[in-house]
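Appendix B. Extra example for self-study. Work through it before the problem class; the solution is given directly after the inputs so you can check yourself.
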Amino acid sequence: MNALFAENLVGPSISWMGISPLLVLLGGVCVLLLLGSIAPRWPKGSYCLFTVVVSLATAVAAMLQWHDVTKNGPKMLIADAVALDHFALLATIAIAISIALVSLITDDYLRREDYDGPEVYALYLTAAIGGVVMASSNDLIVLFLGLETLSLSLYLLAASHRKRAESQEAGLKYFVLGGFSSAFFLYGIALTYGSTGSTNLSKIASALSGDSPFSQIDAMLLVGIGLMLVGLAFKVSAVPFHVWTPDVYEGAPSPVTAFMASAGKIASFAALLRVLVVAFPTRIDDWRPAIWVLAVLTLLAGSILAVVQTNVKRMLAFSSISHAGFLLVGVEAAGHVGDKDALAAVLTYLLLYAVLVIGSFAVVTVVAGKGDSHTTLDDFRGLGKRRPAMALALTVFLLAQAGMPATSGFIAKFGVIKAAAEVQSYSIAIIAMLAAVIAAFLYLRIMVSVWLADSTDDTKLAVPTGAGIAITLAAVFTIVVGVYPGWLLDATRMVSNLATIAVQAVDPATQTPAG
Amino acid sequence: MPEQISFPILTAIVFLPIIGALLVTLLSDRRPEWVKLCAILFSVGTGALSLWVLASFKSSNADFQFVSQHDWIKAWGISWHLGVDGISLFLVVLTGVLFPLVILGIDPHHDQKRYFAWLLLLEAGVMGSFLSLDLVLFFLFFEIVLVPMYFLIGGWGYDNRVYAATKFFLFTMFGSAFMLVGIVATAALARHDVGYLTFDLVTLAEHASFATNTGRWLFFSFAIAFAVKVPLFPFHTWLPDAHTQAPTGGSVILAGVMLKLGTYGFLRFGLYLFPEAAVWARPLFLTLATIGIVYGAIAATMQTDLKRLVAYSSVAHLGFIVLGIFAMTSQAITGSVAQMINHGVSTGALFLLVGMIYERRHTREISQLRGIQKVAPIFAAAFTVVMLSSIGVPGLNGFVGEFLVLIGSFQTARWWTIIATTGVILAALYLLWAYQRVFHGEPDEENSTFAELKLREGMVLMVFIGIIGFTGLYPKPMLERIEPSVDKLIEHVVSHSDFMPPAEIMPPEEIMPPEEMMPPEEMELEK
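Solution. Structure tokens for the complete assembly:
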């Protein structure tokens, strides 16, 4: 009997270095929660500092792995369930940077709202774990694990401000709708498993290519893909699955909204790309039109609905939806045979946009005041006179989101448009640019209020240290990348090389790396 | 090989205003004299550099001079490529001269520091647009120009300024949206012919060849952006509001320099990159230009606001310029380029004068102004000279450009030209009528307090009038620098399409039949 147990249980080999970013994050969560609950209250700002250190350590670990992957090529870890490639590492670095910036904003916010403690930071880190897992998953179940970890953390974060009813409402809405979408996603996984015999993305791809019997089972597979798309579209706020976004973004505490809009999007889009590009490269003619429609709807609805809002957080939420539309243009470009740039373009856009949106919400957090309530357009009036430097930073962020050249936003948009034009997806590129023009009106409205209107409230606006640092770093990054993007573009170019098991198919649609 | 010069003068021309803007922002608000001095220094410095370029420009050389080329975003084939040729030379000089005049002559009512900072940034953007020889670099400057102008109109303009500024921004961005897709598509499609991804204008124009339909679509994607900027009918609706609501300095720059971005774009990118498509689209653009000339003139006649009248006159004048561009003969295009400069000077001066009227009388309504000539004769005299230049009276600069355009276009676009010529008469109509209502007659109580021209205003206007007079009497130095590059452009268009320009105009006995397709034996290309 003993022999049975001892011999049959063989776990997969675990490359601990390969998953070092995850381990760093996990360690951070454990320390934060354990020490946070056992030890007396930490000195002011320590939780924030700790989180920033952990996130920077994660980024460093990811960069070390980056060198390793550049030298030795991408590979799969843990029984091929986790991929270690540039794509996953870039997403990890982007998420880490997001956490660092968001923590800086959260620091004073929590003290201002009287619920300082390690919990929020710990939730950021757990959400990051979920996000990193999603971005590096090579198996649908692992993806689902990551998705749920991220989602549950975000539900809690959205509801974390116990004194604000809007926060509770946001959390509940997110939870209920998110639960539905996760259920859809899971059902999609089940159907995909049923039609291909595996949940491993690479094995699905090989099952669907060539002459295997699974390539004939269409209906179940298509429904499976469709359901998974629904689940992921909910997460990325694609129209018509976006309904949760404005309410949740508005209700949640502003730093949490920043986190959702940055790290949440990075993780979700990374997962979407992985599933579509790695598992279903033979089915691009099926999912590409769906993505096309989603992109067009998202672009148009996002920008048009943004224009009529009066609450700045809702405006930024809808603008976030229109940016998701832009990213979907990149995803659509990835669905063409012969595409080489779409993955890099989408991830670069995500990284640059994350910085922009965190910067914007940082300013919103500062202006919102105690109770997180002063977030209407009128509350921003005359900000140019009250706090010129911060207003200037906000202008930089908004112009960058509009796609003004000499800012990182232009580089981001240009990359996606270029990826689309190279595969001759012209119509969607034009629609995307037109949506950008409509969205520009939104940003102009905010700028009119900030610079060209007189302030209704002349009280001195206190800018906390953490938020000030975050805003400054984000603004400088935006301009520097806008003027010198070369280093970033060279670094992200390798992202297209995904780690998949080399599929023997002669199908040119497969993204096969050299290793 | 483009000649490499050791001092990157063009890069300096673009960066000097940016440095100036930064310095101005950093200076304290409590020392307005320092702020103004700094702004003046940097704009005059840039102007001096542009004049230096003019002086060192070799007029017989049709290629790009003072070229500065460096890799910028290597991964995407985007380079920092600047150069000036006969077509852009005078536009650069115009910009370099106009901005210091605006800074010297006009004081903003408030927030001086920010005003000058935006103005200097605007100068950098406009200079960059005229000098760029890389598609993405051009797009960068073309778009960047929107931000300072938006803030200038929105922050220092008149009652309806926010609406006007927003309309201007969104309208122009709408056109540019198409252009961005066009730019990327051009480079992506040209990859086959060129071998690698590049956005360099000269490389693309010389080596890339597009299928007919593709070329036409690409041309239109660029053309929409330029059509909005010029503005070409029916994309002109942003202009009256933007011009009227802008502060005086903003209007002078807008009319003097920024509108030329569109016409320059047609020449540099429309005709140069897509000659076949440009030739194919000639009838459309000739028609739109002609409609603009007549419509602009009629609309100007009906205006009750003096500034809006001048704004509509800009639509009409730019119609002439576009007519000349798409007539595609040497005289017509040379005339267009010359007219770009002349319009900049004369309409810039007109806006300056209207601004002075507003300063004194706080109204722009023609019905409220009367008999100013009696009270301020020198001011009236200056206005007369500028007005006559705008009408195109011989002896002043407006005539040179208009006449060349009409003569040149008559050969290849006869009926359009005939209709366009009526625009000259209409220009006289609305301007003279406006002048009569505003300046002639007896001044009533409010108008009799109209102050005469001050010394500073007079000095600034003297420069404008000096240029108006000099160019009107002796346009040769300007024309002989413009013509070689224009001829090179036409040669490029002819060799890449089936357009055949008419033979050179013979002296009096022989007038060439104005047909577009000349029989081959009579075709004589100009050198």
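Self-check: Chain A touches chain B at residues 399, 402, 404-406, 410, 414, 417-418, 421-422, 426, 429-430, 433-434, 436-437, 440-441, 444, 448, 451-452, 485-486, 489-490, 493 (CB under 8 Å). If your reasoning did not lead you there, revisit section 3.
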